[in-house]
Write a structure and sequence with these properties.
heterodimer; A: 268 residues; ABC transporter involved in vitamin B12 uptake, BtuC; B: Rossmann fold; six-stranded mixed beta sheet; 10 strands; globular
């Protein structure tokens, strides 16, 4: 066995990383093509409220974070479709508001501690066996829903107006996409960290779009890029003692630059 | 594409009114379109053409009145699926969307197929036929971002045809098509109308070409100004009523 895998915590980190690397870019692709790229970041900040609540109450923070992100997802979609709040300022409202609420909750409890900080930047040493089960269950749910409703989500993502004209309830699919994004964010935060989840949902997708020649290829390439980034990032962060989230995202950015270069070479 | 009782009109519009606040956009619109017609809806900008189309499609709710599609209320999703729609923005659609022509055209089958069902041989054949009829079969593997405005327009038409609709509605379809190709485009729609036995409704401001190609004309300027054959419509009294000043109809070839 590789030296890196002789520790239980690294085995758990790799398993969790593997699942996140598949789930995040799949849902991320739909978010990017719908121009919801900032949604993941917003939901990530909202999930911090759940983390803070979980740390104070002793409930698994992945579960409380999922709850907070789901409630916020519904709120964001309602406000967005009601058009009471102008454009994407609804995202700014939730993003900064939830960060404020999270810090208030944490300071009212024990104050900022190392555990809370590990959720901000991600940490490979903190994945518990219970986390693994939660990540596996939620991740499988997201992937199963995406597979079953692929053709509907594709159509609504391509053109919402056409979907409505054909009698489809586009608003329900919008809400579903945001809910799935909320779940993906919650399961990714252990390893990637709340502040960097958005990057894992967006960068591999944008990278894939440089080379892919169809929507299906975009999904496959995005998962491959994400797997390389997460696995590579975990190995590098272990040997060089770096924050896992940051290392993973830097790996994803390097891949993006390589793919952009390949695309330019192809053109020439 | 239809196997319907031909006596039932494709579209029936009954006393439709639409207003935003105090502003009346459409007033007492009543007319019907028989099956298999090639109809042009024309009128000045702001005359309510696109609004009427959106009401027919159920995208906008009429203030009052009734719409029937093939004899049934347009409220039902199954009835909506009998219409293929090509929106005004088709030629300027999202060019970044990373999908191939075939993926987009296949998505036209999605509402017809319903939830939890996957594309089968029948769907693949319908997609192939729609691509061939629209003359873009050779482009099927190409990304949408690599197409010209005119080609994207045809993808939207093929997408609508893939669902095997009874009625095809196009909103200002020639906006991004160069003048030289416009006649050819309207003739292509005419051939669809005949060969596929499809009711084709186009919204256009191009009176000249529309009058030459379509079998009947609906003129809208908030109210219904006229509904009849192009020959009836070309009379100056209607043009004046429609555009509010002396407008002469001069036929010219592009």
């Amino acid at each position: 066995m590789l030296e890196i895998l002789q520790y239980d915590f690294m085995q758990r980190a790799f398993l969790a990383g593997l699942m996140i690397a598949v789930v995040a870019p799949l849902i991320g692709t739909f978010m990017v093509v719908r121009r919801f790229s900032l949604m993941a970041d917003t939901l990530a900040h909202v999930s911090l409220v759940g983390v803070a609540t979980g740390l104070i109450t002793g409930i698994n923070p992945v579960i409380t974070a999922s709850g907070a992100a789901i409630i916020a997802a519904v709120g964001i979609e309602k406000l967005r479709s009601s058009k009471h709040v102008y454009g994407e300022s609804v995202l700014a409202l939730f993003l900064s508001g939830s960060l404020a609420l999270a810090t208030v909750i944490v300071s009212a409890g024990n104050g900022l501690n190392a555990n809370f900080v590990s959720y901000l930047f991600g940490s490979i040493t903190t994945v518990t066996a219970e986390d693994l089960w939660v990540i596996a269950a939620l991740g499988a749910t997201v992937v199963a829903i995406l597979m079953v409703l692929y053709k509907e989500l594709f159509m609504v993502s391509f053109d919402e107006e056409l979907s409505r004209a054909a009698g489809m309830k586009a608003e329900r699919y919008n809400l579903l996409l945001i809910l799935l994004a909320a779940l993906s964010v919650s399961i990714s935060m252990r390893i990637i960290g709340v502040l960097l989840i958005g990057a894992l949902m967006v960068i591999p997708v944008v990278t894939a779009m440089q080379l892919a020649r169809s929507f299906k290829q975009t999904l496959i390439y995005a998962v491959i890029c994400s797997l390389i980034s997460v696995m590579g990032g975990l190995i590098v962060s272990y040997y060089m003692d770096l924050a896992s989230g940051g290392t993973i995202v830097v790996m994803a950015l390097i891949l993006f630059c390589i793919c952009l270069g390949i695309k330019k070479l192809r053109k020439n | 594409m239809s196997k319907n009782n031909l006596n039932i009109p494709a579209v029936t519009i009954q006393d439709v009114n639409f207003q935003v606040g105090e502003q009346k956009i459409l007033e007492n619109i009543t007319f019907s379109i028989p099956q298999g017609e090639y109809v042009g809806i024309i009128g000045p900008n702001g005359g309510g053409k696109t609004t009427l189309i959106k009401i027919i499609l159920g995208l906008t709710k009429a203030t009052s009145g009734k719409i029937s599609i093939m004899g049934k209320s347009s409220q039902y999703p199954a009835v909506k699926r009998r219409i293929g729609y090509v929106p005004q923005k088709a030629s300027q659609a999202d060019t970044q969307f990373p999908a191939t022509v075939e993926e987009v055209v296949r998505s036209g089958r999605t509402p017809k197929l319903g939830l939890f069902k996957y594309f089968k041989a029948k769907d693949k054949n319908a997609v192939k036929k729609a691509l061939e009829i629209s003359g873009i079969y050779h482009l099927r593997q190409r990304l949408m971002s690599k197409l010209s405005g005119g080609e994207r327009q045809k993808v939207y038409i093929a997408r609508a045809l893939a669902a095997e609709p009874d009625i095809l509605i196009l909103d200002e379809p020639t906006i991004a098509i160069d003048v030289a190709s416009q006649n050819q485009f309207y003739q292509f729609l005419g051939s669809l109308n005949k060969s596929q036995k499809l009711t084709v409704i186009i919204v256009s401001h191009d009176i000249d070409v529309v009058a030459k190609e379509v079998s009947s004309v609906v003129c809208l300027n908030r109210g219904l100004v006229c509904h009849g054959t192009p020959a009836e419509f070309i009379k100056d009294e209607y043009l004046e009523k429609l555009y509010g000043k002396k407008v002469k109809f001069i036929l010219h070839g592009h």
